[in-house]
Design a protein that fits this description.
Elements (H helix, E strand, L loop, with lengths): L9 H14 L3 H15 L21 H8 L4
Length: 74
């Protein structure tokens, strides 16, 4: 685990502290859960193709290998 320092507003800190007290959980656990949920919900979609073809099996990161194996110039 990596330790980080974050700055919270007074109100947010008060609410997290109160929630930790009410639930018997550590503030750190609540913050980790909240951040994990945020990251999961807001993940950046990765492109699945280079935009030239519509192929759900060919990811953009694999395009160079596919071209090397399948390219047949003119």
């Amino acid at each position: 685990m990596v330790a980080r320092t974050v700055e919270l507003s007074d109100e947010l800190h008060r609410r997290i502290s109160e929630l930790a007290r009410q639930t018997g959980r550590a503030e750190t656990d609540l913050l980790n859960e909240a951040i994990a949920t945020y990251v999961k919900v807001n993940r950046v979609p990765q492109p699945t193709s280079d935009g030239m073809i519509d192929d759900p099996e060919l990811a953009a990161r694999d395009l160079d290998d596919w071209l090397a194996a399948n390219w047949r110039p003119g």
